[in-house]
Records
---
Amino acid sequence: MAFWSQYALLAGFSAVLPLAAQAQDASAVAAAPTAETSDERVVLEADTVYEIAAENSIVAEGNVEALYQGRILRADKLIYNRTTEKVRAIGNVVIIDVDGAQQFSDEAEVGSNLSDGYAIGFSARLAQGATVTANSAIRSSGGFNALDQVVYTACEICEEDKTPTWTIRARRAVLDQESQMISYRDAVVEIAGVPVFYLPYLAHPDPTSDRRSGLLIPDAGRSSMLGLYYKQPYYWAISDYSDVTISPMFSSNVNPVVNLDYRKRFYSGEVQVNTSFTQEQDFDSSGNKFGEDLLRGHIYANGAFAISPQWKWGFAVERQSDDLYDRRYNIDGQNAKRGLYSNQPRRLLSQLFAVGQGEDYYADVALLNFQGLRGVDDANQLPVVSPLLYAEQNWDLGSYGFANAKVSSAILTRDVGADSHRVSAGGEWRNFNLLPGGATFEPFVELRGDFYSLDEAVSGKDQVSRAVGNAGAKLAYPMVRPGKTVDVMLEPAVMAAWGFSNANDPAIPVEDSQLYEFDESSLFEANGFGNYDLYEGDGKLSAGLTARALWKNGTELSTTVGRRWRSRADDTFDVASNLDGKKSDWVASASLDLGRNLNLSSRLRLDDKDFALNRLDLRASTSFDRFRAVAQYYKIDSRISPLGTADEGIYIQGEVQVSDSYSIIFGQLRDISQALDARRDIGIAYSDDCSRFELLYSRSELSDRTLGPTENFQFRFTLKSLGNFGSGQ
């Protein structure tokens, strides 16, 4: 390629491709070229450039490349007509925009800005590998590309004659680069070259697009409760900082329901609202109606806002008109965490809170309100908490250790049942010392005072005051043996403490420790109960061993095992807590990390008398070659069950890739103790670089009052750059 000198390059094109009002003397340009002057001219490289005087044209041939304000045009031949100020490019034409988007054609004619014009045999490569082709294209100054006989796909186009997994074919289309939208007339969606459905009009954002208003992918299907249904979401981008999705759903068995998802971001925080409403009767799992025709709905909303760099406030609202409303209309998100505190399964929690945290303090305060969705729930017995408060101040005392002071309160009121008003204040001190020989010694003292104002008619007392505390120390001896292939670490430890006796008054209602269980995570805590209403006093001794092996290849094996002895049994602790009697069960945990190939973790509780298995929690995950799965297993013996009955279950979910494109999907959530499947899935999936198709059969044997077992067939598919299709049923 012959590269022209700067003088010849600029002097030639000051006459060849200047903007109309920017022609200047060539010698002046050559003598004092500036960035501004150069930006207004087209820079050309070619093997040969010559002039056709009769046509007032300049012709460049062979490896032609023209550059104008960051836009590049490449072709085999380029003809510039001085009279019309049009550039005609012939052969292997490529136009690269400033944003990197590439457009190809056999022949094109553009203006002197290398942008507006027409093209024959047009194609364009968009972001994320998407491609659009057309017989012809006309581009206007506004960034519009009017296309004729169009094909669009997000699949990679190979040199081999391979049909893309999916395409959109249309009679006409408009690629609007300003709004980043592609709209089609008479569009046909093809899967593997086979027409699947026809749409007289279709529009979607191009892969580079930001969010924008428009119809989203519909959801249609059939269920035993709703019958045939169709759900059509519409996304409305209200502004740069707010949007809403409106999703009416129509079904053959019940009245329409409208779903709304609203989001708004402020300079100091954000708000999210998910709600729905309908006018309908109750109905069972077969769609049979009963009861009154009422306005029904739900709302799940939350928000958080910064008050200062250290403080923020927020809220969460969770309410339903009916206990089973979310299950009847397949509404997700019931058990999601929306505020400072998490709810329990089938319990809704509304809260208003403030939280602050600095380098040496933490504080939060919250108002809580519950709604029960379980069949046994009585709204009059669920408490209103106003407020729940906790604050902690910490001090670093240097060589004298660490200290903190804590205050807490919980005000619970009920329409039916015991009210409980608690205020607590206390503090803790501990130190860390390294002894000769490598042993560690950690002395500690903790002290707390509690005051309860109670409902005398229920509790037998109108108030209870108590002081609780512990003093003791932990002694450990960490040992490390480095090796060529594996490093081994062992740490035997003992903890001894003595606390106040008779710490638990039977009149105090147990509100925050009903499902608490002492395990290896609290083995060396002086108070085995981490909450307030129950406290572990008297003398206690814990002993345990932690072992860890770390291989040079990253494999890691670790385990902790231990138990606890007490000077006196406390009848306020039940057997499930593992703090009943004078000896706890043996508690242990173990984990094996082999990277993606295998990851195992387990927790054990063995009976203190005969080492029988009282509890086992096991989790495994693997991603090995063509197999990916996660499994969880649990077993609780009747000896420690709060209900006095054994509980056992297993959860498995995974995928086996039987070929490069096809996979088997499987999943099961089985309640072994009741011999039923809470959920069972089996299906087949097809995946490639631009799509995923799934055909899945699901069955659930669970029953909840008027809702019984269900089974569904699901067909879902995802097309890259277009979104998800299919039914949520």
---
Amino acid sequence: MRLSAIFAIAGTFLLAGVLCLVAAGFSVRVIEDNARNSVRSELDKEGMTWTEVDADGLQVFLAGVAPSEAKRFAALTVAGRIVDAARVIDQMLIEDTAEMAPPRFSMEILRNDHGISLIGLIPAQMDRDAFVAEMEEMAGDAEVTDLLEAADYPVADSWNEAISYAVRALGQLPRAKISVDAGRVAITTMADSPEKKVLLEQSLQRRVPSNVRVAVNVSAPRPVITPFTLRFLIEDDVARFDACSADTPQAQKRLLEAARAAGLEDDAECVIGLGVPTPEWGKAGALAIKAIGELGGGSVTFADADITLVAAQGTAEAKFDDVVGGLNSDLPDVFALHAVLPQPEAEGAPVIPDFVATLSPEGLVQLRGKVGSQRLRDTVDSFAKARFRSDAVYTRARVAEGLPAEWPMRVLTGLEALGFLGQGAVVVTPDNVTVTGMTGRKEANAQIAGLLAEKLGASAQFDIDVQYQEALDPVAGLPTPEECMAQIAQIQEERKINFEPGSGTLDGNGASVMNDIADILSKCGEIQIEIGGHTDSQGREEMNEELSEARANAVLDALRARRVLTSSYSAVGYGESQPIAGNDTEEGREANRRIEFTLIEAEPAPDLEDSGLESLEEEGQEESVTPEEEEGSGDEQN
């Protein structure tokens, strides 16, 4: 009895072991088949039918005769996309041909917060060690992964220029993918905002080599809108948006069409962003805008799924009930509608307390009106000084009793809204907050409406009359390269850059002029400038050339000392070779002793195929043409 039980148990374990071996073998075959078939399928898609694929466990073997070294490398790359590259075993041969076609040299440079990766095929004559060392210096403490292969074939001269441009571009891109070929560089990166996207595109479009085509794709993420806001008004028969948000281009189009049908005549912007409470946002917004149009006036405010509709004072109650009832029935279930019909104004109404904050064009802030306590007055004063400059805030607010309990929140929210303006005012009353003024932000109306709806509640009443002014826009207000050079030329017409006699040292007056020129250049961004030094004909020609170069470099050093970005500047000494006046008089010699600032521009391409700049999305777009060169004339003293 005991012996039979032991045999039964042993038999069970033996059977289980056999089943495990069978299952393991089956699993291995499944893994091998999947790896083999997946790699085979991907290679066939790429037209690499000459390869032979086999699998043994986790390893994948590639065999066959590759037409070229580049094709062999491409096959390894394709297989590495399917399985781990470390599992790919290369057993391929290269076709033996007397006239082997040169490979296509290319490099992928990938950069993120973890480091820089280099992938591709480069020419053997390229100084690989120096290039990798430059990448390591740029990466700092991050890791540089070198996966480059080299081949000994001739390469076009444009390869070196493309590499140089790619390295310069990588220096200002903390996260990017840069693809480099001989004569072409493709850059894919992202910016934190639309404003920074514009600045980055402008920077990358400068200093493009004439024989290199550059494709730039800078994406800016959609803004996260919270609360998701929409506010449409009809006042004095004029329809407008204070804020418009949409989740898709289709919803944006639907909202704008509804607004035009309700009487909107001016152009309006509707921001596409993230944070929509429901996919039916566009439908609900269009219905509410239509209701305001039917009422003939009033406002509708969306804060996420809460809707507040306020009819114009004097609206007939029967009409109000009919329109609001229909809107309430048509709205999607997720939305909650709060409709208000204002009562007619009563005669002899009491004086309404208010708080007023004004912001002058010079940045001065004045606070006046009523606050509920001394503590609130101190809080308002501190908040304003933290938001604006401490020395720019003048508080005249008076402590008064009997103000509403929500008065502190209304006042502080009004001050926060004032921060979106370049100049203007905010008026706070128990029933309304009014924001008026000018701004350099195109989306300020939407941001202010979202802030007030979030802080004061969806049913709060507020009026926004904020106009966009391009002069206040930090991006649109940037001077063009020509304007920069014209401003420098104007300074040099009035004052000379002087040096100590016979030396390259700026005198006291020269230092003062450099301060003003540095102020201009610090606002111009990265432009290519040549600083040329010139002398009169007195003295030996070699000495004059050395002196002019020393003075040009002294100007360059003076700009660096004033924290001007000079990486795109060059200093050249021309000596006496380019006079602008005769050297036979003191006046002529004085004119010839000068410093000139010259704007360097890339030569415009004659047609699309020779363009130095193209778009990733539309390869046919023409290259941006660098503005015309404008020279600023300057002077110096021997």
